[in-house]
Design goal:
- There is one protein chain.
- The chain has helices spanning 5-12, 24-36, 56-66, 69-77; strands at 81-82, 91-95, 106-111, 115-119, 124-128, 132-136.
- With 138 residues, it is of the alpha+beta class.
- It has a single domain (5-136), classed as endopeptidase fold (from Nostoc punctiforme), CATH 3.90.1720.
- A hairpin with a 4-residue loop joins strand 4 and strand 5 (124-128).
- Helix 3 (56-66) packs across helix 4 (69-77).
- The longest helix is centred in the N-terminal third of the chain and has 13 residues, at 24-36.
- The mean pLDDT is 89.
Length: 138
């Protein structure tokens, strides 16, 4: 059965932000897993890995070592496209302008077709597609 993006979003719509559970990396990876059966964070979720240990600093060091958010996204999801080329269901890195993205002002999210849905403090937030920096086909 093909996963339904609307149902995926509705299920998480009112979920509060929580590192290592409902943050931007996890919501994007959970969507990729639902859609493709492959978890782009599988090795990082192991009990001895940064996400499995719930170690935010170690997780951010991985991003830094990769060269940034676009580069870590490309290591995990393949080549990126410009953010404005995102299509419904694609993973998108958005520049949130501080609205969301607690650490960096960037947030991974999912393209709805016209917006990028990302975890906000209290619930999912919908950013304009023009805020997309990079996109990965799913």
């Amino acid at each position: 059965m093909k996963p339904d993006l609307d149902a995926f979003i509705a299920e998480r719509r009112n979920t509060r932000f929580e590192y290592f559970q409902h943050d931007c990396a996890h919501i994007a990876a959970d969507w990729v897993l639902a859609k493709t059966g492959k978890d782009p964070l599988a090795d990082l979720r192991l009990p001895t890995a940064p996400l499995g240990r719930k170690n935010l600093l170690a997780s951010l060091r991985l991003v830094r070592r990769a060269g940034g958010f676009v580069q870590i996204g490309s290591q995990r999801l393949g080549p990126f496209l410009p953010g404005q080329m995102a299509q419904r269901g694609d993973v998108v890195l958005a520049l949130s302008g501080g609205k969301i993205g607690r650490v960096s002002g960037y947030s991974f999210g999912i393209c709805t077709g016209s917006h990028i849905v990302c975890p906000g403090n209290e619930q999912l937030e919908f950013l304009p597609l023009t805020q997309g920096v990079a996109a990965w086909r799913v």
